[in-house]
Amino acid sequence: MATKTFLVLINVITFNLVSGSVWLDVRNEAMDYELYYNVLDYELCEEQKAYIRDDPFLAAYFADAGFRIPKGILEGNFIDMGNYHQCLGFNQQLPTSELQGKYCMLEVSLNPDFNFPLNYGNTSYDPKVFALAEMKEKWKKYNMSGIHRSFPGSPIPYMGFLLAVCMPQPCTPQQAFSSLDILGLQYREEFCRLPNDRPWVPADIVAIAIFSVIGFLTILSTTYDVWQKFFLKKDPKSVSVLGTAFSVYTNGSRVMTFSSSGGNIECLDGIRALSMAWVVLAHTVTTEGMFQNELELYEWSDSWQSLWVTAGHIAVDTFFTLSGFLLLYTTIGKYTGKQLLKNIHLFWLNRLLRMFPLLATATLLEASFYNRFGDGPEWRGVAAHVVSCRTNWWATLTHTQNYMTPLFTCIGPSWYLAVDTQLHVLSPVLLFWVLLGNRKIALTALFGGLLAILAASTTYNFIKEFATHLYGFGNGDYFKDYYVNTLTRASPFFVGMIFGYFAKTSKIKLRKWQVLCFWVLALSLSTFILYAGHATRLEVDQIVANFYNSFIRPLWALFVASLIYMCINGYGGPINWFLSLSFWKIHSRLSFAIYLLHQGLMMAVNAWSISPNYFSVKTLTYKYLSHYTFVFIVAFLVVLTIDAPFSTLFKLILGAGGKKTQKKETDVESTKKEATE
């Protein structure tokens, strides 16, 4: 399966390792596998094959919908997807039966003893043949393809091709294409698809029922709101808050407000929005199923030109930094150490409730509607994530998926929420000492916590000897044991807490030359981090890799947190002006919804493809803008109808409305929530 192996090599983000599970021969409850077996009938297959042989139109139709040699083999394309919709759309009544199409994907390879007319040692051939050979060697070296062959001649006979075929429903590929054996081809069935092969399940019924109730409440609440404010001309303050909780008018006004409230940190809007845009950009590449010129993509991803995409994984550390920063910034002055312990249940409950509505919505969508969002030859990738949500939803909602189901998570990016929530649950261990009011004790606790986590994570990294990225060399399981591990991802959170404490308790005065020196150092640090990430994607010494994994993320957090601190103290200049533009506010408010929804939607849209796309930076940019626009619209609707209403309900239930400091705390808490993407 050369194509899928190659995709794993060029991916730098978590998600495609998870989606790789779609190639395992396991039962996928998102598709009706019993239907595939029930339609098989040896005698009926032979009968329908005879009709096809005797009818030139039928023979041409089935041939046109399937088997052909892939185009662009020398550019890394080893798949031909046929004509999926043409095959499944065929239906003709025969005298004794109904002839319908079945779409199957076969893994086809040439016999290794086949004398292919290209000679690897002949330099007169296209240089891309050599590149393919080198690429095959990398597959062997990474031990990801499961193939351990050498090729003294051309590498092409050893490549596995994925070829689509169209056949009558009662047939198996072996029965329909027995002539392939005569040609010396080795093949096996990867999967088959039939019309209406995605059954309705309880999750679909639950989703319809829940979203129907929410839709009804939205219509009812909006009608009440408009009637009270526009027809009865009542003062908005006198209108029932509960009655307008689901109102599109009221919630839309809140979401679309561009004015700032006191206590907000303006630059956070820009940082949050740009970081979220960066995450979507990185996933635009890694959620793409395949490209017909994957060799060019491979070469591009190894070049400096791809830095703006391949460095996107560092954006998540920005969110960890913001989360730790706002945790301290919003807690100091709100609680004392004793009050925190007394109200720790509310401290944890408030955190969990604010995340729950959107997280539950995204989980339910991926467990139900996503499986019916579209269809295509590559739909099994979507179906695999649907199954993960149907079986592992509990790990997502309890924020334990990074340990319980790290390779089969429902909502790929939700591992961040698990780590962040775990850090919030443990944070009172430090917060208690910080909130005692003694500065020395507070700083000792904060810096002691950072040093302890750095020492522990560094020791762990040196023991496990991870690679520096998802497809690099290393002894440990990078994704499961490093990328989603709370220990290895906690340091940015601690850095954020330290700067949140300084921002809340102290101000600084700097001279112009000091400000200039800071920005030169800060921008130099950020540039070093980004380029170091690219340099270490190549094979590096393991000691270098260990230090990189241990310190690159806290260094990035140092850059982000110090930038915020300078902006708060009035030394941000044009950078603060840009990050504080009102334009970023709505993007910032929607960032959490975008984070949860974008990858599933992008996978579903990409799975519509009926042929490999052509890779270029221009098409990549266009597709990114299309993805972001679409996800932005969906996120806006979800925030409007689910997140905003339930946020109001939770405030009413917890009794926040009666507190004197409610308005100020609400503003800051809103900022804090947006920081969690």
From TrEMBL:
<feature type="transmembrane region" description="Helical">
    <location>
        <begin position="203"/>
        <end position="224"/>
    </location>
</feature>
<feature type="transmembrane region" description="Helical">
    <location>
        <begin position="6"/>
        <end position="26"/>
    </location>
</feature>
<dbReference type="Pfam" id="PF01757">
    <property type="entry name" value="Acyl_transf_3"/>
</dbReference>
<feature type="domain" description="Acyltransferase 3">
    <location>
        <begin position="266"/>
        <end position="642"/>
    </location>
</feature>
<dbReference type="GO" id="GO:0016747">
    <property type="term" value="F:acyltransferase activity, transferring groups other than amino-acyl groups"/>
</dbReference>
<keyword id="KW-0472">Membrane</keyword>
<dbReference type="InterPro" id="IPR006621">
    <property type="entry name" value="Nose-resist-to-fluoxetine_N"/>
</dbReference>
<keyword id="KW-1133">Transmembrane helix</keyword>
<dbReference type="Pfam" id="PF20146">
    <property type="entry name" value="NRF"/>
</dbReference>
<dbReference type="InterPro" id="IPR052728">
    <property type="entry name" value="O2_lipid_transport_reg"/>
</dbReference>
<feature type="transmembrane region" description="Helical">
    <location>
        <begin position="630"/>
        <end position="654"/>
    </location>
</feature>
<protein>
    <recommendedName>
        <fullName>Acyltransferase 3 domain-containing protein</fullName>
    </recommendedName>
</protein>
<feature type="transmembrane region" description="Helical">
    <location>
        <begin position="307"/>
        <end position="332"/>
    </location>
</feature>
<dbReference type="InterPro" id="IPR002656">
    <property type="entry name" value="Acyl_transf_3_dom"/>
</dbReference>
<feature type="domain" description="Nose resistant-to-fluoxetine protein N-terminal">
    <location>
        <begin position="58"/>
        <end position="176"/>
    </location>
</feature>
<feature type="transmembrane region" description="Helical">
    <location>
        <begin position="483"/>
        <end position="503"/>
    </location>
</feature>
<keyword id="KW-0812">Transmembrane</keyword>
<feature type="transmembrane region" description="Helical">
    <location>
        <begin position="515"/>
        <end position="535"/>
    </location>
</feature>
<feature type="transmembrane region" description="Helical">
    <location>
        <begin position="443"/>
        <end position="463"/>
    </location>
</feature>
<feature type="transmembrane region" description="Helical">
    <location>
        <begin position="590"/>
        <end position="610"/>
    </location>
</feature>
<feature type="transmembrane region" description="Helical">
    <location>
        <begin position="555"/>
        <end position="578"/>
    </location>
</feature>
